[in-house]
Amino acid sequence: MSEGSTGAAAADVVTEVAGAAVAAGTSWRRAGIAGTAIGVIAAGAAAGVAIERMTVGRGMRKKARLALDSAGPYGSLRGMPGTAYADDGTELAYEVDEVDAVPARVDGVRVQADADADAEVGGPGLSGGARRLRLFGRKVPAPVTVVFSHGYCLGQDSWHFQRAALRGVVRCVYWDQRSHGRSGRGVAQIEDGRPVSIDQLGQDLKAVIDAAAPEGPLVLVGHSMGGMTTMALADQFPDLVRERVAGVVLIGTSSGRLGEVNFGLPVAGMNAVRRVLPGVLKALGSQAELVEKGRRATADLFAGIIKRYSFASPRDIDPAVARFAERLIESTPIDVVAEFYPAFAEHDKTTALERFAGLPVLVLAGDKDLVTPSEHSEAIADLLPDAELVLVPDAGHLVMMEHPEVVVDRIADLLVRAKEQVRDAAR
Predict the structure, then answer these.
(1) pLDDT at position 263, please?
(2) In the chain, count of helices (H) and strands (E)?
(3) Is 63 left (phi over 0), alpha (psi -120 to 50) or beta?
(4) How far is C-alpha 6 from the chain's CA centre?
(5) Mean pLDDT across 304-317
(6) For residue 332, what pLDDT band results from cuts at 50, 70 and 90?
(7) 230 pLDDT exceeds 50?
(8) Residue 413 — very low, low, confident or very high, per pLDDT cuts 50/70/90?
(9) How far is CA 80 from the centre of its chain?
(10) CA-CA distance, 279 to 285, in Å (whole number)?
(11) In the predicted model, what is the mean pLDDT of the chain?
(12) Which residues does residue 219 pair with via DSSP β-bridges, in sequence order?
């Protein structure tokens, strides 16, 4: 499909969705279109994509999805669960993987990797010593707690490969942002009608740190919205950064100007989308049950959208990994998608980046990211001249799933560099 036809498709989607939002509840077809549009947003785009042609029957595709869900190990890793509480009372679910939490042997039998895909990045069944050797060789990582913050419409399980590699080697905290994953719906949003803000997410991260890692040095890792959350934490709690943070990893994220992203669409088509999107989202959020039905009915279209905006080479991605990403995104309720979206247009944490000056910082992005283009990562690196900038070739927005070994190796390098920061802070 050419760029021109893609733009026309975008305009058609916008027109149809606007009509569906106005007349929600009157037509299954319109509900399906509305659900598909929200799927685009959930994947990080606003509307319109080139969809691959479907050549297999619907029943066969449904069976394939069920088979992938049952066979794929992705998202199955669990740690010690805990609950933190945001300032408005929202329950924030987190899990902790302690050092050497996975033994080399169980009942005298060496534990094997659960899957080849995990083994490639140091699988969960490998001993802590084996993973440590794979990641660090003879080097020693910093004695830190690594706190992972996930992106929009994802969850803590989106870090599956990194979690598999670091298990038993470094203390790690994984958490679900409010209204995502296992965390509770935002109390302020439900009871007070307060809009979600990136600042609120930064406060939530502070609550998780206070509960799961109340002392000791930290390394903060954030993907997409999680990177913005990390910046908001630094903006509001500079003393925490100065006293405890030993390193920062910002993956596929932005410090602002997200309103200029065109998601790979022609500018004219994207401008049309921006004009109608706020009203469409508001309408769809008020018709969540109907739109969810439409989203399920258009699951095949939804899968194509997710692959388009998540991965640089959709045809080459492991089908189980693609299905894993789809499952994560589609589990986010429609009204949550709608209530979070406006926060990105207001996000501007450029000045907050100053808090990270002098720290080991890794800024990493896929060179074909359509959601937060690599230019945004380059802009962050320009403001942090000592930061390491890594643009991963042939990688999209979910670079930590598409090229997990690159992300794991770069995080491991930063953990070694952070050791010097911890040592200097202790003097």
Answers:
(1) 60
(2) 18, 10
(3) alpha
(4) 26
(5) 84
(6) confident
(7) yes
(8) very high
(9) 21
(10) 10
(11) 78
(12) 146, 247
Residue that the structure tokens 């769809």 belong to: 284
Four-residue CA torsion sign, 391, 392, 393, 396: negative
Give residue 370's pLDDT.
92
pLDDT of residue 19: 42
Residue 52 has pLDDT above 90, yes or no: no
* Rounded-to-integer distance, Cα 271 and Cα 283, Å: 20
* H-run or E-run covering 228: helix 225-236
What beta strand segments (E) does 156-286 contain?
171-175, 218-223, 245-251
> What's the burial of 70, exposed, middle or buried (CB within 10 Å: 0-12/13-18/19+)?
exposed
What values do phi and psi take at 206, rounded to 5? -60, -40
**Does the pLDDT value for residue 361 go beyond 60?**
yes
CA pair distance 164, 172, nearest whole angstrom? 11
How far apart CA 86 and CA 9 sit, in angstroms, is 41
**Tokens 């560099």 label which residue?**
417
Please give the domain boundaries of the chain with CATH numbers for all domains. 3-51+60-72+260-344 (no CATH), 80-258+348-426 (3.40.50.1820)
**Helix-strand-coil split of the chain, %, nearest 5:** 50, 15, 35
CA 167 remoteness from chain centre: 19
98 to 75, 212, 344, 361, 363: CA distances (angstroms): 18, 11, 33, 23, 26
Is the per-residue pLDDT at 42 higher than 80? no
Tokens of 363: 């800024």
- Joined tokens for residue 93: 């679910």
Burial string for 179-196 (b: 16+ CB within 10 Å, else e) reads: bbbbbbbbbbbeeeeeeb
Residue 235 backbone dihedrals phi, psi, to 5 degrees: -65, -40
CB 34 within 8 A of CB 284: yes
